[in-house]
Amino acid sequence: MSLKKNFIYSSILTVSKYLFPLIVYPYVSRTLGLSNIGIVNFIDNLINYFMFISMMGISTVGVREIAAVRDHKEQLSKTFASLLTLTIITTVIAIVVLWIAMYTVPKLMPYQDLLYVGIVKLAFNLFLMEWFFMGVEDFRYITNRSLFVKCLYVVSVFLFVREAADYKIYYIISVCAVVANALFNIVYIRKFIRWDFRHIDLRPYYRAFLIFGVYVLLSNVYISLNPVWLGFVKDTDEVGYFTTAYRLHNLLMAVLLSFTNILYPRVSNLLAEGKKEEFWEKITTAFDAIFLFAFPTIMFMLVAGPDLLHIVVGDGFEGSYLPLRIITPLVLIIGIEQILVVQILMAMHCDNTVLKNSLIGAIVSLALNVVLTPQMGANGSAIVWVFSECAIMVLSIAAIYRKFGYLPPYQRILAYLASYVPLLVLSMVVYHFLDNSFAIVSCIGVLTVAYAAINEIYVMKNKVVGQLLHSLHR
Questions:
Q1: Which tens digits make up the pLDDT trace of 350-384?
Q2: C-alpha to C-alpha distance for 469 and 278, rounded to whole angstroms
Q3: pTM, full prediction
Q4: Would you tell me how many other CB atoms lie within 10 Å of the CB of residue 130?
Q5: Other CB atoms within 10 A of residue 281 CB
């Protein structure tokens, strides 16, 4: 399938991953209330962190290794069986550790019923196997299956979540969506491989599996562990504030990450075939794609983000407004970091460098969490996240320059920033004359789109926009 079609399917998939929960979130937040939302998010983020333990580095190593052998069915089946076996081992370990924590950590004991539901999610997550389908670039199947299950999820939430006491039902429905996706995948994957574990070989994969697993665990300290830490040192209300801001931010990141998701198997395949010149051309395209989306999005969210959040979740979540503004620059920072870490360092098999950088980023996160979060709550968690991502980005830039003599296009970044400052000023002027959230979001949204279109085509001359316009005229 072409890169363009993969991008379209991956964009739909990634946007739906956050859009569907965002469709139900306004209803759920109003129905369950801040405290119950905080409880569910506290438990779910804890489960998600154990999922990172169970998956380790499979999301990266799996895509890379499957992409390398996708045209050789026998080797594909053997590689799949070996990688899945590694994941089975770590999943069992994660479930055992979580079960012990449920009965030994006092803070978790009141939520044992939700944690048992979370264990089901942890177990079935093993069979989602998205890494395999991304490796063979079957984004159409992933997208169609995901949309079907998400539609069932939305209908179920509106049917069965009717009052504040239904927060447990809400979590059960969320877990059922994972179970349904896993069952579909177990059946569909037989189109590509044979379920045969007689010839597994863990030796070629376990080192990278563990290294990237540690990277995932460390890099997610400030994403999934931050809400858990908030729940321990503050309360579930602060968890609700942070995770509400985080959910809206994730929707903004959806299209951006969809591009890096589909580009990773492609650049890995290019490197496997020795096409390094084409590899660096893809990296240049990736930067322009990020700039196209990130800069106008940041300007819009800095001004109108809180009003957009108010439209989505309603009253009672005012504590999410400042954290949302604090994490808004991460749209650009994480976008650049994804190219540096995923598209360059991981694709070039610089495993130790990735691990070292993520370790330093995690140390920064843990140190700042101890200092800031107990006093500043959700605002402190947001600051911690920004500084941690910046640390990893800077370390990755330095490593890539040392190894390959390559620097990100920093002059173009500065030019982009200068070109969008007038939009920020204009948006603030418009904001000053409006007092309704819907009017603010609508007017500044239209202004942002119009300004960005003119700026990208005539001022910055973005290559991605040029390619899109060229394809439309063909």
A1: 878 887 888 888 888 888 888 888 888 888 889 98
A2: 22
A3: 0.68
A4: 19
A5: 12
